[in-house]
UniProtKB/TrEMBL annotation:
Pfam families: HTH_31, MLTR_LBD
SUPFAM superfamilies cross-referenced by the UniProt entry: lambda repressor-like DNA-binding domains
Record Gene3D superfamilies: 3.30.450.180, lambda repressor-like DNA-binding domains (1.10.260.40)
Record-given protein name: Helix-turn-helix transcriptional regulator
Organism, as annotated: Kitasatospora purpeofusca
Length: 301
């Protein structure tokens, strides 16, 4: 089976990066005692673990020969790839089939806008796969940053995490959070390598040393839930869980919601933050119209 539609050069770079992170001892190979010019496994060692010839593996890594699905699976096992890394490897090889094209519009759906409005104290934002911020509720602006004071072209969570000093300062573990966002973006490149929004963002991040270092590390991850620690100047430290909700009617839009453990100090501080900033969303069945910037709606163009 060919890798038609794949990205052989990036696949090879990904394999090189992953084998550089392993030692013979980690994968159960004896050390021959000979000095190594570079860190990590040699090509011959990866080939041995995957039960293929060194020449075949070399051609795959150099982007000169496609690899069948069984060989890719063998390489994933040899390199101890995580499930996300394995999915990324298969995506680079053109398998599974690419996802359908992204929607041309960046308008948040009315359902997602209404859901945001009804979240009283839980911070929530609507993001695209490339982490463009389409909408947010008042608690999110109070906890993270006032997205509305940024022009539409800058309303991208990754861009703001590196460029907005307010959002950056709210993360107690900024490097961990930023690195996770970069891994999420890298995962998106295998799914939709030609996404123009992604390429515009990458071009704008070209001068950020940390971003480029983590991008070249080729770490990948699907971010669906987790835990984040924040530090807010008004209420102090908060530890919040976050979850990602995807609408069946808008699969390219995800609602990220932060919540606190019931009865915890973080829950108390989250309620206090909403009260002190007037960020508690008002009750009601619906949010405002598409131009309601209080809910972080896109500005008219």
């Amino acid at each position: 089976m060919s890798t038609s539609g794949g990205r052989p050069k990036e696949l090879g770079a990904f394999l090189r990066t992953r084998r550089a992170e392993l030692t013979p001892q980690q994968v159960g190979l004896p050390s021959d005692g000979a000095p190594r010019r570079v860190a990590g496994l040699r090509r011959a060692e990866v080939a041995r673990l995957a039960s293929i010839s060194t020449d075949y593996y070399t051609r795959i890594e150099q982007g000169r020969m496609p690899a069948s699905t069984p060989v890719l699976e063998a390489l994933a096992r040899a390199l101890r790839l995580s499930p996300d890394q394995r999915a990324y490897l298969l995506g680079l090889a053109g398998r599974p089939p690419a996802e359908p094209p992204a929607r041309a519009t960046a308008e948040v759906t009315e359902h997602n806008r209404r859901l945001l409005a009804q979240l009283a104290t839980g911070p929530a934002v609507v993001l695209t796969r490339t982490m463009d911020v389409l909408a947010w509720n008042p608690p999110a602006a109070a906890l993270l940053t006032d997205f509305g004071r940024h022009p539409v072209r800058d309303r991208n969570y990754v861009w703001l995490l590196f460029n907005d000093p307010v959002l950056r300062s709210r993360y107690r573990d900024w490097a961990d959070g930023a690195r996770a966002c970069v891994a999420h973006l890298r995962m998106h490149t295998a799914r939709r390598p030609d996404d123009p929004r992604l390429h515009r963002l990458l071009a704008r991040m070209a001068d950020h040393v940390d971003f480029q270092r983590w991008w070249q590390a080729r770490e990948v991850a699907v971010q669906a839930s987790g835990n984040k620690r924040f530090r807010h100047p008004l209420v102090g430290d908060l530890t919040l869980d976050w979850d990602t909700l995807t609408s069946a009617t808008a699969p390219d839009q995800h609602i990220v919601v932060w919540t606190a453990e019931p009865g915890s100090a973080s829950e108390h501080r989250l309620h206090a933050l909403a009260a002190r900033t007037g960020a508690a969303a008002p009750p009601g069945p619906a949010a405002g119209p598409a131009t309601d910037t209080r809910l972080g709606a896109p500005e008219p163009t």
